[in-house]
Specification:
The complex is a heterodimer.
Chain A: H1 2-16, H2 24-46, H3 53-74, H4 88-117, H5 123-191, H6 194-221, E1 229-231, H7 232-237, E2 245-248, E3 255-257, H8 258-278, E4 285-291, E5 295-302, H9 311-317, H10 322-333, E6 337-343, E7 346-354
Parallel strand pairs in A: 2-4
Antiparallel strand pairs in A: 1-3, 4-5, 5-7, 6-7
Helix pairs in contact in A: 1-2, 2-3, 3-4, 4-5, 5-6, 8-10
Chain B: E1 20-24, H1 28-40, E2 44-49, H2 52-62, E3 66-69, H3 78-88, E4 93-98, H4 103-111, E5 116-119, H5 124-135, H6 143-157, H7 172-182, H8 187-194, H9 198-231
Parallel strand pairs in B: 1-2, 1-3, 3-4, 4-5
Helix pairs in contact in B: 2-3, 3-4, 4-6, 6-7, 7-9, 8-9
The chains are: A alpha+beta, B alpha/beta.
Keywords (chain B): DNA-binding, Phosphoprotein
InterPro entries (chain B): CheY-like_superfamily (IPR011006), NreC/VraR/RcsB-like_REC (IPR058245), Sig_transdc_resp-reg_C-effctor (IPR016032), Sig_transdc_resp-reg_receiver (IPR001789), Tscrpt_reg_LuxR_C (IPR000792), WalR-like (IPR039420)
Protein name (chain B): Response regulator transcription factor
């Protein structure tokens, strides 16, 4: 395309100033050479396998040759060279092929030829030469960057496709593993004895894997989540990997500032630790998360014997703040409240934390 | 085990031998295990299926009262099977038995009409009890599922969501009961705490599900009408 335009420019200019030629026949030959070479070059560059070093060298040589014969056909003291801007074709070919190094090399060769064949260098000549020397490397550099970007984009696309495929395979594999673990757990419990122990272990692993898959899927599914926001439902879901802990939460993500989410998870974790210490390491506990437009409500419940009346007051009187006060304090720091109810039915923490409206 | 069905042994309405059950699971090992357990307990297993298509064909031929259904099956999936099967025979009951723990799928299946949900790690006795209760018209909830349903009602009641006159709402009592189920309390414990009968607690839980399913049907119909109008 560029070659066509510059060729037309050179041909028209040469005819327009035909009287400048001292040897008109030589001038016509030069123009014919340019026509022939342009056609050949367009054809040759069309196929990647023909873009050899030889072709590029020949391309540059033709351009240099035409520059060099200018004094012969136009006589000394000419103003414009025969090919004029047509040499840009060869220059850009070099820049595209050999990046900025090629662009610079071709530009310097062309510029040197142009300057050497002239008797005197005017301001305009210098300007043109300068443009060529600057333009060659810049085009080369841009080609390099573009190609690099294209390569990086391809790599990113491949990585994304591979990740999606891995996730799909993982789901299929996990489902199979979950099925086997559940079956082992069920049959183990029925057989009793050592098999029951195996079954119990399989059950623990099943519940851990299930939690892992759930949290992973929520991470993958969350589009454009910034670091500052976390899904409280997914984070609490991780607590299910503890023995005998059940987490109930909405199906939709509950997104809150990451530090609030981490603090709430830590508080719930502390409540569950308390259950493990006071009721027993295997004691069941339930966590419920509810999300409202202006607040989140959390409940942590166990069915232990409850905290004996007066024990908390006694601890406070002895100057020990204890776990309960620490939980209240941490929730208060988030601007919320933590209520404790305890009795023969067990112990329940009810935590309410306000959230900025506009939460999705 | 992290989740179990709440509620004690429900009042058995029909005898086991007269309950016709179909088992749908693409894992042969699981399908056989569940089928054997049900048969040993005296249930009448009238059909088994490994894919959604198989399940729907055999459902129509065998007319089971209860479908014990895995959600992760070849097309159409468990949610689709639930919807199709119940459209064909609204008196049938679907008990979802899933190992996947995929919360969104379970919620969709319940919206489509399933009235029970158990994780596969539930014991043999829990499974048999769940099938009996579902056949008797009762709902079988895990705390996890109660949390999902509760979350769904909260989401719909969010003032930020588009106001919908058809939007179902829970009564205060229903919310209270559902919340207690989500906190892991059994129907018996809830009945004691609220000084209600066991049956009343069951009714409240069933109502919450019915409202959710009804809303889902209304939305589907509305969607179908809109699609139809757009095509004209």
């Amino acid at each position: 395309m560029l070659r066509g335009v510059t060729l037309a420019n050179a041909v028209v200019l040469n005819f327009y100033r035909a009287d400048n030629f001292q040897r008109p026949v030589g001038g016509v030959i030069c123009v014919l050479v340019m026509l022939a070479w342009t056609a050949l070059a367009v054809w040759a560059y069309a196929a990647p396998r023909r873009r050899t070093v030889g072709l590029l060298v020949a391309d540059l040589a033709v351009a240099v040759g035409l520059l060099a014969v200018t004094p012969l056909v136009k006589g000394d003291g000419f103003n414009a060279t025969v090919p004029g801007f047509w040499v840009a074709g060869a220059l850009l070919a070099w820049a595209v092929r050999y990046r900025w190094v090629g662009g610079l090399l071709a530009a310097v060769v062309l510029a040197a030829t142009d300057l050497l064949v002239r008797e005197e260098v005017t301001q305009a000549n210098y300007g043109n030469v300068f443009l060529i020397v600057i333009g060659g490397p810049i085009v080369g550099f841009m080609c390099g960057s573009l190609q690099q970007m294209a390569a990086e984009r391809d790599r990113a696309e491949r990585t994304a496709a591979a990740a999606a495929e891995r996730a799909r395979l993982a789901r299929a594999v996990h489902d199979g593993v979950l099925q086997v673990l559940s079956l082992v757990q069920r049959r183990g419990a029925e057989l009793g004895g050592e098999a029951a122990e195996l079954g119990r272990l399989a059950g623990e692993q099943e519940s851990r894997l299930r939690t892992l898959i759930r949290t992973q899927e929520r991470t993958v599914a969350g589009p454009g989540e910034s670091d500052a926001v976390l899904d409280l439902a997914a984070e609490l879901g991780r607590l299910e990997s503890r023995v005998a802990v059940t987490v109930a939460a909405p199906a939709t993500p509950v997104e809150l500032p990451a530090d609030v989410v981490r603090e709430l998870c830590a508080v719930v974790g502390a409540c569950l630790d308390n259950v493990a210490v006071h009721v027993g390491p295997q004691a069941p506990a339930w966590v419920l998360l509810e999300a409202f437009a202006d607040r989140v409500e959390l409940s942590v419940r166990d069915e232990g014997p409850g905290i004996p009346a007066g024990r908390l007051e006694q601890a406070a009187a002895e100057g020990r703040l204890g776990v309960s006060e620490s939980i209240r304090g941490r929730v208060a720091d988030l601007g919320g409240t933590a209520e404790l109810s305890t009795g023969s039915f067990g112990t329940e923490w009810e935590i309410v934390v306000p959230v900025a409206s506009g939460r999705h | 085990m992290s989740e179990h069905a709440t509620g004690g042994a429900g009042e058995t309405v029909a005898t086991d031998a007269s309950i016709r059950v179909m088992v749908v699971d693409d894992h042969p090992m699981w399908r056989d295990a569940v089928e054997r357990d049900l048969q040993q307990a005296g249930f009448d297993v009238v059909a088994v299926a490994a894919t959604g298509t198989e399940a729907l064909t055999r459902f129509k031929a065998a007319r089971p009262q209860v479908v014990v259904l895995d959600l992760q099956i070849p097309e159409p999936d468990g949610v689709g099977v639930t919807r199709e099967a119940l459209a064909h025979d609204p008196s049938a009951r679907v008990l979802v038995l899933s190992a996947s723990g995929e919360q969104a799928d379970v919620l969709e299946a319940v919206k489509a009409g399933a009235t029970g949900y158990l994780v596969k790690s539930a014991s043999r006795e829990e499974l048999l009890d769940a099938v009996r209760r579902v056949a008797g018209g009762d709902t079988v909830f895990t705390p996890g599922l109660a949390g999902l349903v509760l979350g769904e009602f909260r989401r719909m009641a969010d003032p930020a969501a588009a106001a919908d006159p058809m939007q179902p709402q829970l009564t205060e009592r229903e919310t209270e009961v559902l919340k207690m189920v989500a906190k892991g309390m059994s129907y018996k414990q809830i009945a004691e705490r609220l000084v209600l009968s066991h049956r009343t607690v069951q009714n409240h839980v069933q109502n919450t599900l019915r409202k959710l399913q009804m809303h889902n049907r209304v939305e589907l119909t509305r969607w179908a009408i809109e699609q139809g109008l757009d095509e004209d």
